[in-house]
Design brief:
heterodimer, A: 420 residues, alpha/beta, D-Maltodextrin-Binding Protein, domain 2, 2 domains, ten-stranded mixed β-sheet, two-stranded antiparallel ribbon, 18 helices, globular, B: 292 residues, mainly alpha, MetI-like fold, two-stranded antiparallel sheet, 13 helices
């Protein structure tokens, strides 16, 4: 007996629908979004640990292209189709909090002691009008690396890294003199994000302030800003930075140190584990210190990374908060973060059995001198390739325009954006 | 019979699916976009009506003019290259010898690659230190220091991107031209040959006039495509240096999504749409005239 055509078509349609359903996605699962380009290894591990302990409320993790995260999230909010948990580049926290699009989780953490030692930068951007909207998902800090092999070759003490901007200049000059495509320092010419991560701390360590909080706040404040910019221009004029860096838009930024051709470079803690895979010889021959300022001993760092938040509209707020508490717990801090040699997101957990490498300890302590910019328009002001921050630096690095004029122009642009 | 009320309704009934489709996917989004352009809207906050502010702001925005001028410059340079290049290649490969068929295939091959993928490919080919182009030039002794192709000098970046787009798109125009050239009656060409016309004379007096409609069609497609250029600039320069290679669509994208200024982005889109419409009207008039 032949089945009627309609029934066959219906069976095929049902089969197709079932095939299109993500494997393992069930109604009780929590949906979580996280951006690409962040610390995927760490986030995967956290979700894996949670899913092992919570088989009845597993997290289904979806990665969203980093540059599309904010628009995608905005679209999700506008359409009411939000995930239950959302990993958010921490700098975007204030924008979404101010718009009232994140769940207020203050009361859930009222008696939670773990929050007291959580990364201050992450907590700062997770807080709006004294209410809490997120907790640290993972932390990145910027530090200064030096290549001990090139230091030895240039006749420098390989165990002593630069302690001031002048040190960087002088050491870089000796390394650049080696020739053969070796350059003393690295500054990416076409990457706004890389520069706030690694050049911003040079300004902070010298006593300067970069971004305005809002329209009433003055940007680029501090007498030493001009001096730091002069230093950067001089580094270029003296040929201590590879001219090819001018086109670096961030896509090969993390691989530069591993090339073995760069003497000193500001980059993130993530670069150490990357080196292990990229250039194992160099992995054992790099030193790590804080990014310095004009004065010897001054130091700063950019505390980056992601926060995890609950978008307004999530029906699983309580479960989502449980995940937040889970990743702040002692066990996950040590067996999750530290075991993978990632920074613990709680300062009091930095002393653990896995942090035996003094460089990792140094990076963990960078959180103490680290800052996280707080502004409602971070992308437009700082992170955008079209923004005033990168435009200012490009004029400093590659033109002879007067530094004071460059600062004045950048201030005006930043103020105009903040006022919009 | 066709003018009876019943047949009119029947005609409308036949048209209904198409009308519904256009209403749903063209008229409704366009109306929405016009409404959005009169508002300031970030998607995460409620829209705020601002009247024509977004339009007046666009015309006083320096970057709007920088982007528009750059887009027109890019269009003005690449269109003749695509047209003349595509037509010249088409003339060479319009025959049906194995070599001509093989060449046609090779030239057409990049057309089937996505523009994003081809832009990434050329991004790496033009890389300063490890890129294939600089390596070849250095090995040939033509350069000593690497040329910074992308994101450093606007003209050099434009030049590099034009090379990549010509590689990617030339085959499309060529294949349309080949079709048009092959459709030219062989009798006409043979008559010209008997009259002693040279190859160039036949091209100028026979092939060109008889393929004019295709030429105008390819020009139209090329101009619209260039005015709406985005992928290649987004991937290869991200508007650098100093936003000088930020095309109009890139500028719209930037405002609409990363900056979440949906209203301003919508206003910019409408202004660009009017520009494209004007170009299209001019082209259509020219096409009609050539047909007449």
């Amino acid at each position: 007996m032949k089945l009627p055509k309609l029934m066959i078509s219906a069976a095929v349609a049902v089969a197709a629908l079932l095939a299109a359903t993500p494997m393992g996605a069930f109604a009780q699962d929590l949906q979580m979004w996280e951006r690409t380009g962040g610390n995927a290894t760490m986030v995967d591990k956290l979700v894996e640990m949670w899913n092992e302990k919570n088989p009845n409320r597993k997290i289904v993790l979806t990665y969203i292209e980093h540059s599309e995260m904010v628009p995608k999230l905005a679209q999700a909010i506008a359409s009411g189709e939000v995930p239950d948990l959302m990993g958010l580049d921490l700098i975007y926290g204030p924008q979404f909090e101010a718009a009232g699009q994140l769940e207020d989780i203050t009361d859930y953490f009222k008696d939670d002691a773990t929050l007291k030692t959580a990364s201050p930068g992450h907590i700062l951007v997770s807080t709006y009008n004294d209410r809490l909207y997120g907790v640290p998902l993972y932390a990145d800090v910027s530090v200064l690396y030096w290549n001990k092999l090139l230091f030895k070759e240039a006749g420098l003490d390989p165990e002593v890294g630069p302690a001031s901007l002048q040190d960087i200049h002088d050491m870089a000059a000796k390394i650049t003199a080696l020739g053969d495509g070796k350059y003393g320092y690295y500054l990416p010419g076409n990457c706004a994000g890389c520069n706030i991560f690694t050049f911003g701390p040079l300004i902070w360590a010298s006593g300067g302030k970069i971004e305005p909080l809002d329209a009433n706040d003055e940007p680029l404040v501090g007498d030493n800003i001009a001096k730091v910019l002069e230093w950067a221009r001089q580094m270029h004029k003296d040929g201590l930075i590879n001219p090819a860096n001018q086109s670096e838009n961030g896509s090969t930024f993390a691989e530069q140190l591993g090339s073995g051709k760069v003497g000193i470079m500001g980059t993130g803690n993530f670069n150490l584990s990357l080196l292990q895979a990229q250039n194992p010889d160099l992995f054992n021959n790099v030193g790590v210190t804080f990014l310095p300022g004009l004065e010897p001993g001054s130091a700063a760092s950019f505390a980056g990374g992601d926060i995890v938040t609950v978008p307004k509209g999530s029906k699983r707020v309580s479960d989502a908060v449980d995940f937040m508490k889970f990743i702040l717990s002692d066990e996950v801090q040590v067996e999750g973060y530290a075991k993978l040699l990632n920074l613990t997101t709680r300062g009091d957990m930095a002393n653990n059995q896995y942090f035996t490498d003094p460089r990792v300890v140094k990076m963990a302590s960078a959180l103490d001198v680290a800052r996280t910019p707080y502004t409602l328009k971070f992308f437009e002001l700082i992170n955008s390739p079209q923004g005033p921050w990168l435009q200012m630096l490009q004029r400093v690095y590659y033109t002879d325009d007067p530094i004071d004029q460059i600062i004045t122009d950048a201030k005006a642009q930043m103020k105009a954006i903040a006022a919009e | 019979m066709y003018s009876s009320p019943r047949s009119k309704w029947l005609g409308l009934l036949y048209l209904t699916p198409a009308l519904l489709f256009v209403a749903l996917f063209t008229v409704y989004p366009l109306t929405q976009m016009i409404w959005v352009s009169f508002n300031n809207w970030t998607l995460i906050s409620p829209p705020k009506f601002v009247g024509l502010n977004n339009f007046t702001k666009a015309f006083s925005d320096r970057q709007f003019w920088v982007s528009l001028t750059f887009t027109l410059k890019y269009t003005a340079i690449i269109t003749p290259i695509l047209m003349i290049g595509g037509y010249a290649v088409a003339l060479l490969v319009a025959g049906n010898s194995p070599l001509q068929r093989f060449t046609r295939t090779i030239v057409f091959l990049p057309v089937v690659i996505g523009l994003g993928a081809s832009s990434l490919l050329w991004y790496w080919l033009f890389a300063a230190d490890a890129g294939f182009i600089n390596t070849i030039l250095r090995d040939l002794g033509l350069i000593r220091t690497p040329i910074l192709w992308l994101g450093v000098n606007a003209d050099v970046s434009n030049f590099a991107i034009i090379i990549s787009v010509v590689w990617k798109v030339l085959g499309f125009g060529m294949i349309l031209f080949v079709g048009a050239i092959q459709a030219v009656s062989t009798e006409v060409n043979e008559a010209a040959l008997v009259d002693g016309a040279s190859g160039w004379q036949r091209v100028r007096s026979i092939t060109l006039p008889l393929t004019l409609r295709t030429i105008l069609l390819v020009t139209l497609i090329s101009v619209i495509g260039s005015l709406l250029a985005f992928d290649q600039f987004y991937i290869m320069t991200a508007g650098q240096p100093q936003n000088l290679t930020a095309t109009s669509v890139f500028f719209i994208y930037l405002n609409s999504f990363p900056y979440l200024k949906l209203g301003y982005g919508a206003a910019l889109s409408l202004i660009l749409a009017v520009f494209v419409l004007l170009f299209t009207l001019v082209q259509m008039l020219a096409t009609r005239r050539s047909h007449a």
